[in-house]
Structure to design on (171 residues):
């Protein structure tokens, strides 16, 4: 199989996947190194496919996405991350990404794609295993999420819960 054929198969594999697929899993599936997959994903993205790089792997953004979205600004400590994320997912929300506005580096962020307590647990385990500092530590706890839900009412309920917990910063 040549490079172009492999890239087409990667697209098909991601389309068929119900969640994020790690670079290592793709490398094993196609018999190449993870570095080859990283290069392939870059080329696929450049050709117009909306592939998101998350902490759990690659995710092809489906064009059938009909969720309502809202950008929220929150502030809390590192120890409150799990509680904040649970406030969102327990009410039916989906955390698409997070970012901070750093005074030197500008907008720094990452796709999260957290929609369940299992995803939260995996995110926190990866943070612990890598020893990496959460973005919120760069800005004294202040950060922004893009969240999604099936309807506006759910987004309103999430914001109300975050406000009651003392996390939501009203604009």
């Amino acid at each position: 199989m040549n490079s172009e054929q492999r890239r087409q198969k990667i697209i098909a594999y991601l389309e068929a996947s119900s969640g994020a697929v790690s670079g290592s899993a793709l490398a094993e599936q196609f018999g190449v190194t993870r570095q080859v997959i990283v290069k392939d994903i870059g080329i696929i993205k450049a050709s117009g496919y909306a592939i998101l790089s998350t902490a759990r792997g690659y995710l092809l953004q489906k064009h059938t996405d009909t969720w309502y979205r809202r950008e929220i600004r929150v502030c809390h400590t590192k120890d409150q991350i799990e509680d904040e994320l649970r406030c969102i997912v327990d009410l039916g929300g989906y955390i698409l990404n997070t970012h901070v506005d750093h005074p030197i580096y500008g907008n720094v962020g990452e796709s999260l794609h957290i929609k369940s307590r299992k995803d939260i647990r995996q995110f926190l385990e990866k943070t612990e295993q890598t020893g990496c500092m959460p973005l919120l530590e760069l800005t004294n706890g202040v950060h922004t999420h893009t969240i999604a839900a099936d309807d506006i009412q759910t987004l309103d309920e999430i914001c109300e819960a975050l406000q009651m917990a003392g996390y939501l910063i009203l604009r």
Observations:
- The beta strands are 51-54, 57-60, 68-75, 94-102, 106-114, 142-149.
- The first strand starts at residue 51 and ends at 54.
